[in-house]
Design brief:
Number of helices: 8
CATH superfamily of the largest domain: ATPase, nucleotide binding domain
Radius of gyration: 19 Å
CATH architecture of the largest domain: 2-Layer Sandwich
Order of helices and strands: EEEHEEEHEHEEEHHHEHEH
Oligomer: single chain
Largest sheet: 5 strands, mixed
CATH topology of the largest domain: Nucleotidyltransferase, domain 5
Number of strands: 12
Shape: globular
CATH class of the largest domain: Alpha Beta
Length: about 300
């Protein structure tokens, strides 16, 4: 298949679609605000409208990376947070296939980002990669030889739910306290800053204030980065990847402290495993979704 394919990124805030060529390059991209509060049908309609405008130049299936845990065999959402109300149980693959007249392949958005980075980004020279996405929440994915290790329930990589020292007073997005996501995420930065100051701001604002010299914000960001780096060092010893990538909107703020803690905690046997920033930015999910679609198409052709 030489023609480009369409990759879709469905998130709680924005939905994007892109035309991606066989080299992993985005040729055209379109984006809208996700109508999350209007329900799943409105979200699917928005995604389909974006993709439909690109399909004339594309072939094969459409790939989707979406928030939530995805049932790999069916493309149904097993679980999603309130960022997409009613998304749990949504048959994304079948619903979009009906709207677009094309087969649709669906995976979790962090999985898609990892596929994209390992194909055309910071992990393209590595066979085994651990990617951690630090955004509003904290997610992860393990890619080995171009395939995501999804686990028995399509939910492997949930690094945000590891226990983390210092998170005992902070609540994770899953509802329980003490998890890494409650510290090392945008929501974690906001919660920790509120405990210190009584001021309610976003995680991005905390990061901006830290960069501007706010002492409290700086301590919050440094604690979060240190917790993330220590956790990643332990995961390297468990998973034995070739490289660790950190992606997401909060990654830049946390990376300095994370890198220092990672280097300090990494066992000697894995001292050559680098910690790198991801490279594709907001294109990672659409690129990875396109890769998923391309791989599915190639597999189908081989099986015929």
């Amino acid at each position: 298949m030489t023609a480009p394919v369409v990759g879709i990124d469905i998130g709680g805030t924005k939905t994007a679609a892109a035309l991606v060529d066989r080299g992993g390059r985005v040729r055209e991209r379109r984006e809208v605000r996700t109508p999350a509060r209007s329900g799943p049908d409105a979200v699917l309609d928005a995604a389909a409208r974006l993709a439909a405008g690109l399909l004339g130049a594309a072939t094969g299936p459409v790939g989707v990376g979406t928030a939530g845990t995805v049932e790999p065999a069916t493309g149904v959402i097993r679980y999603a947070t309130d960022s997409l109300p009613g998304w749990t149980g949504t048959p994304v693959a079948d619903a979009l296939a009906a709207r677009l007249g094309r087969p649709v392949r669906v995976t979790n958005d962090v999985y898609a980002a990892a596929l994209g980075e390992c194909w055309a980004g910071a992990g393209r020279d590595r066979a085994h990669v651990l990617l951690v996405a630090v955004g509003t929440g904290l997610g992860g994915a393990v890619v080995r030889d171009g395939r995501v290790e999804a686990g028995a329930r399509g939910a492997a990589g949930g690094v945000g739910h590891l226990p983390a020292p210092g998170a005992e007073r902070l609540r994770c997005g899953c509802g329980r306290p003490g998890h890494l996501e409650a510290v090392a995420s945008g929501s974690g930065l906001a919660a920790a800053y509120f405990l210190e100051t009584g001021t309610q701001v976003t995680g991005r604002t905390v990061a901006d204030r830290a960069a501007a010299g706010d002492g409290v914000a700086g301590r919050v960001v440094d604690r979060a980065g240190a917790a993330l780096g220590a956790a990643l060092a332990g995961l390297v010893a468990l998973l034995d990847p070739d490289a660790v990538l950190v992606a997401g909107g909060a990654a830049g703020a946390l990376l300095p402290a994370a890198s220092a803690a990672y280097a300090a905690e990494l066992p000697a046997g894995w001292a050559d495993v680098p910690l790198r920033p991801a490279a594709l930015g907001t294109d990672a999910v659409v690129v990875g979704a396109a890769r998923l679609a391309m791989d599915s198409h190639d597999i189908e052709r081989t099986d015929r």
